[in-house]
Amino acid sequence: MSDPKSITDAEWREKLSPEQFHILREKGTERAFTGKYDKHYQEGEYFCGGCGAKLFASDAKYNSGCGWPAFTKPAEGDAVAEHRDESFGMVRTEVTCSNCDGHLGHVFPDGPAEAGGLRYCINSASLDFESDD
Asked: How many domains does the chain have?
């Protein structure tokens, strides 16, 4: 893949499903409890559905009950970027893929205290999964 940050919307539309394009490129979200990775607990790694960059490991995933896949931390390094999001009359912290700027979801300070207190609430449609098996 060429530099993911230089790909045009037309090229992204060819590469992604309509739902993935809406979430990753237009900052959309999937309905709660509908994503394929919400209750998915197989061991492996989660990658960006847009560019394939490693984002999260299964050992950081937990059942938060929020309706979206939840992680306590991203993969090592600078896998994700965080940005202030003031959309919809709220102040939240948006999470994007550091490699392609694709929208992943949001991070909240209500995660398990013993794991650092963060909940990375991520759209399933923005992820791909590769099993350790």
From this structure: 1
